[in-house]
Structure formats: structure tokens, C-alpha cells
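Notebook, student rotation project (T.W.).
Task set for the rotation: take a protein with a known small-molecule partner, predict the structure of the complex, and write up what can be learned from the model alone. Partner molecule chosen: copper (II) ion. Sequence and SMILES entered below by T.W., checked by me.
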Amino acid sequence: MKKLPILLAALAASTLALAQAPTVNGEVTKIDKAGGRITLKHGEIKNLSMPPMTMAYRVRSPQLLEGVAVGDRVRFEAERIDGNFTITALAKAP
Ligand SMILES: [Cu+2]
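Predicted structure of the complex:
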């Protein structure tokens, strides 16, 4: 039971980070399901001080790669987690 407060703190921190990350527009150029990575041509990412570019990201969960394909326009959220640029939310653009 000692671990519970740490878990709750981590959960609260990640929820806060999610709420703060702005949604970014992008286009899928490559998907690496085995490696848990996706390459996106994306617009400016203000919370990461990143200009528009094409680059590979880690995905927080493999499920994020379900339902998207190369060529899809997407909306996503990205954060720096443990030093890695990581996609924390991803969905096809409506
Ligand atoms: Cu980038």
C-alpha cells in the first residue's frame, strides 16, 4: 500500500500534463508498430518549442497507432517524457 500515494501523484501529474498539451495538426508519413513509433509531418508544437517539421515520435501506448494509416491527417498531443518526445494523444482529423 505504500506505493499508492506515489502512483496517485504520478497519475495527477500526467493528467495535468495532458490537459496542458495543445492539440497539433499533422500527417502520418510512417508507422512502426513493432517499435511503437510514428513519423509525423507536423505543424508548430508550442509546448515543445518545436517548429514545423517531419520527425519520428515514440507513442505512449501502442493502442494509439490503431486506426491511423500512412497518409492520414491527424490531430495529436506531444510531450517530453523521460527525455523522449512522446505522442500522448492521437486521432484522425475530422
Ligand atoms: Cu518535431
